[in-house]
Design brief:
The protein is mainly alpha-helical. The protein has 6 helices and no strands. Helix 2 runs antiparallel to helix 3, helix 3 runs antiparallel to helix 5 and helix 5 runs antiparallel to helix 6. The protein starts with a helix and ends with a helix. InterPro entries: Cyt_c/b562, Cyt_c_II, Cyt_c_prime.
Length: about 160
């Protein structure tokens, strides 16, 4: 027969396990974002590419604002990566890909010509940035980084929910 201290220990362990399980379930319920369980996961794929945009552009923005030192090879590699990524998310904006967790507004599809123009302007801005990064004019690079960021902001204002 188990001793009283052993029974108390088992009860305590069981209580801790139940509490941990309740916390885990509660946190999962509070995430507020449904999973992307649609075929091909277009929302997940385009969001991952947009995160790469931000990860690539952010250090360039720091250089453009003189918060980080300019290192030509690093800056050029980032500009090349951004230009490579620029056309990638757009095929994932299919008519059936506006479901949670998407933050795309319906205008992406109802104003398709304007959305196409916005994405073309973004891609062009990344090409301008790449050309500037291949040169030696730091002011041109700063302007090009700002132009890319302005394209992001403009498109988000028109086509993305907050």
């Amino acid at each position: 027969m188990p001793s009283m201290p052993m029974i108390r220990s088992l009860r305590l362990s069981l209580s801790v396990l139940v509490l941990a399980l309740l916390v885990a379930v509660g946190l999962a319920a509070c995430s507020g974002e449904p999973p992307d369980d649609h075929p091909g996961q277009p929302v997940t794929k385009r969001r991952a590419i947009f995160k790469q945009f931000a990860k690539t552009l952010e250090p360039m923005g720091l250089v453009a604002r003189a918060r980080e030192p300019y290192k030509r090879e690093k800056f050029l590699a980032q500009a090349e990566e951004l230009a490579r990524l620029a056309p990638e998310p757009w095929p994932y904006f299919t008519p059936d890909a506006n479901y949670p967790p998407s933050r795309a507004k319906p205008e992406v599809w109802s104003q398709a010509a304007e959305f196409t123009k916005a994405r073309e302007q973004y891609v062009a801005a990344t090409q301008t940035l790449l050309a500037a990064a291949k040169g030696d004019d730091l002011d041109a690079m700063r302007r090009a980084v700002n132009a890319v960021q302005d394209q992001c902001t403009s498109c988000h204002k028109q086509f993305r929910r907050k």
